[in-house]
Sequence to fold (222 residues):
Amino acid sequence: MNIYYKISLFLNLLKYFIRDKYINHENDHILFLKDYFKNKKKGFYIDVGCYHPIRMSNTKFLHDNKWKGINIDISKRSIDLFKIARKKDINLNIGIGDKNELSEAYFKKDIFHANTLVDDHAKVFLDSSTTKKIVVRTLSFVIEKYAKDKKIDLMDIDCEGKDLAVLRGLNFNENQIDLISIEMHEYDEITKKKSKLILDIMVKNKFKKIYGDSSTSIFKKF
Fold:
């Protein structure tokens, strides 16, 4: 790793560490998860579309409480940050979808919360973008390789329009999952239909919605 690039990563982490320490960014979603897991020690998470180990992270407080997990993002820079901040986790620079393939990815910049594998999503949320090819794997593939037979306490899915495909690539019957947090956009007819299909998958696999805000819902297995 280039020394100047590595320094830039450390400076980025330092900046957000200081911001996180002195500015409270906790939203209702994080507060709900904190309360739900307040007595859970040493759990396991999978963060799909992890973005940043500190900024806007739904799993940072779990890592701080000695949990371990798998962090996945299409941005190499994001994953390089995770490799520094969460050395004991498994950190993967891949995409997640409903099949194993090579796919086009759309980037506004190297690390950006709305980078996506979905062309329509890029047109809505990215003013301009560059594209690059990225390896895509199913969640079942990743779990089989890195977390076989492991209970997943939290699966956090925030994949900028790819969330339905992510669920379709997961074999629910072969994995023990407590909570699934997933982004469910409803800003047009296409995203409303996808959200309905996501809900259908969750209900079919005996998950019940226990929390929801304007874009993110949390489901528990019953």
Summary: The chain has a mean pLDDT of 94. The first helix runs from residue 3 to 22. The CA atoms of residues 8 and 14 lie 10 Å apart. The domain at 3-221 is CATH 3.40.50.150 (Rossmann fold).
